[in-house]
Design goal:
about 0% strand; about 90 residues; mainly alpha
Length: about 90
């Protein structure tokens, strides 16, 4: 069975050093550059949506407390930096 997938083709331009880093990362991941960039774009969109959801939550319920942030970091297995961001 042949499956045809619709794709949206476009061209991207970036600094040569960034392009080289993307090619290297795609190769390390065993992916095409297009596949790697598509995954990176999907990751960025998920992060943006998560950020918007957290902003809405804080707007409704107030800022997250240190204890809640520490618990979330522990659950995720990350170490929080001094400003509340992952270190």
């Amino acid at each position: 069975m042949i499956v045809c997938m619709q794709v949206d083709r476009f061209s991207v331009t970036m600094e040569p050093d960034l392009g080289a880093a993307v090619r290297a990362a795609a190769e390390r991941a065993g992916m095409s550059v297009s596949g790697w960039l598509a995954q990176a774009a999907a990751d960025r969109l998920r992060n943006d949506l998560l950020g918007a959801a957290l902003d809405a939550w804080e707007a409704e319920d107030g800022p997250f407390g240190v204890d809640a942030l520490d618990a979330a970091a522990a659950t995720l297995g990350i170490i929080r930096g001094s400003r509340g961001h992952a270190a």
